[in-house]
Amino acid sequence: MNQTFSLTLPVPISQDAHRFAQQFAREQATPQKGKQVYLNTLAVVAVRDYLGWLSISTAIDQGDCWHPTKRAMLNVADLVLPHLGKLECIPILPNQDHLEISPEVADNRLGYVTVQLSEDLQQVKLLGFVSAQEIACPPESIPLNQLHSLDHLIDTIEWHRKWKNLWKNLTQSEWQPIQLLPIPNAVRSSNSVPAREANFRTAKSLEQSFIRGKVIQWENDPTKPAILLTVRVSENSTEEVDVKMRLYSFEDNIYLPAGLEVSVLDESGVACMKTQAREEDQWIELEVGCKPQEQFSLQITLNQDKIIENFKI
Amino acid sequence: MDQQIQDLIEQLQQFEHTSSKGRKALTRLLIIIQGHPDLYRSSHRDYSEALNRTLEWVCKNIQSFEPRPPSIEQSLIRWINGYLKWRVRDLFTTNHTPSLDRPISNKEGESTTLMDRLEDPNAITNLEGWIEQTQKERRLSIGDTVWEYIEKDPENLLKNCYPKKQPECHCQILAIRLLLQQPPHKISEIAREYNISNQTLYSHWKRKCLPLLQTIGDQISKRFGLEK
User: Fold this and answer.
1) Reduced to 3 states, what is the DSSP secondary structure of residue A218?
2) Which end of chain A has the least Cβ crowding within 10 Å, N or C?
3) Could you tell me which residue ranges the Resolvase HTH domain spans (chain B) (predicted)?
4) From B44, which residue of chain A is nearest by alpha-carbon distance?
5) Boundaries of every domain in chain B
6) At a CB cut-off of 8 Å and minimum separation 6, what does B8 contact?
């Protein structure tokens, strides 16, 4: 996997980049903060230039690092790719051997481009890339020899272009990385369900997949046990993704309530598959294959209560 | 090298320039070009500006590059150098960055320019000194205002936002330690100190503190007339 050092791209720094960097650094409260802002600005402009050469459009002025208050507050070097999301362009010093991802930028990113500065600030080198689903939560520092090459950046942007609706759906704030959710009892009690550990920190794998989850509450009847819903999306071919949805019991509710039913409804609301929890089930799941632009809903039913989650691919 | 360049140029003609394959080939070509010993180089301090523009032009026009004898490699570099030399010449005839030549004075009172500082071979090393100087020259900035707010927390908004049962681990402390301190502290360090889990602390930071800071930031933006 480690092609990073053979695929390291120098980008000469334009005068424009220095001009913005000076302007933004001057506004900062301390010289150290000013330096952080200066280097962040150079990194973002360099990645913008590179993507521009590849005809990938960006909107640098829509990023937090272009916003005076946000860059004063946060350590941020984000580059907006319109309709897709944001890349974080992290500058590293010439002798630095690892990548630090600050906790304020661990969220809501397609991935992280590593931008190594030269001592004279005349050029940067784009060393490599880590996609969002590969980082730990909260983020840990990543040794540079674990970065993927720029090819992975190009593939990731392509992946997001294809599956942008789904990504947008599942990165809204109600959906969380599963490390921030309660641990399902099925995972607590057995090692046979690889839902939790296997899908994170997959920095060694280039598989394009991600997983998010949320706690489902029964608003009409709070006495009914809350359940955990996780959704795992992985590409099974260039034109189709598998969406695997699991319901888990957690905390004091050892098992899912018997009779809990989950079904997938097509665009016209017709159930095309369903499954039901039996006595002593800790999890149930459904899996669908989808093409871009398709829509479906997940309907969760317990007695008379119904919860619907809509998905647009 | 000649064969490698030929393969890449063929790929660029074969694949859409917006396809992943086309983009990967272009990336490799950009690496080869910049590492090529015959690429025109100049000691002009803004050479990187000229090279940056040249690479942009190469990417736009590579489809129309026509190899000539004796080799693809040589004709490619000659084709690029032809454009690059003109961009370097532009540097000598136009002044792109008047602000860089604005005189500033250093600690010893000698007059110098921003460009002199930036040109210094140890530019990263000198960056903070230069920034400190220019920061002194301006009035209360948005950066000062944001930092002062976090340090003083005049409305106690930050102090009053903490994880359940951990009132001392509030947003103000977290903002100071994670945002203001250089280098910032790690979530794991702070979590250990307050005896809470990394996830709880991170989750609190992400779901409560960052949105609160955003609200505060928006108010400061308004005060500075920066609606967004």
Assistant:
1) coil
2) N
3) 172-202
4) A122
5) 2-91, 131-223
6) B25, B26, B28, B29, B32
User: What domains are there in chain A, each with its CATH number?
Assistant: 10-150 (no CATH), 167-312 (2.60.40.3080)
What interface predicted TM-score (ipTM) does this complex get?
0.85
Q: What span, in angstroms and rounded, lies between the C-alpha atoms of B103 and B111?
A: 6
Tokens 């942007």 correspond to what residue? A157
C-alpha span between A154 and A152 (Å, rounded) = 5
In this complex, do B143 and A138 lie within 8 Å of one another by their Cβ atoms? no
| Whole-number pLDDT of residue A190 | 60
Q: Is A286 on the interface with B (CB under 8 A)?
A: no
Q: What is the pLDDT of residues A153-211, one digit of tens each?
A: 999 999 888 888 888 888 888 888 888 888 888 877 665 444 444 333 333 445 677 88
Residue in B closest to A151 by C-alpha: B24
Q: Say how far apart CA A55 and CA A57 lie, in whole Å.
A: 6
The pLDDT tens digits of the residues spanning B157-206 come to 999 999 988 899 999 999 999 999 989 999 999 999 999 999 899 999 99
What pLDDT digit, counting tens, does each position of B105-155 carry? 444 444 455 555 454 535 788 888 888 877 777 778 899 999 999 999 999
* Higher pLDDT, residue A265 or A176: A265
Residues 6+ apart with CB under 8 A from B43: none
Q: Residue B143: which of A27, A75, A180 has the nearest Cβ?
A: A27
**What token pair was written down for B215?**
């609200």
CB–CB of B49 and A103 under 8 A? no
- Determine, for residues A49 and B23 on separate chains, whether the beta-carbon distance falls below 8 Å: no
Q: Is A143 on the interface with B (CB under 8 A)?
A: no
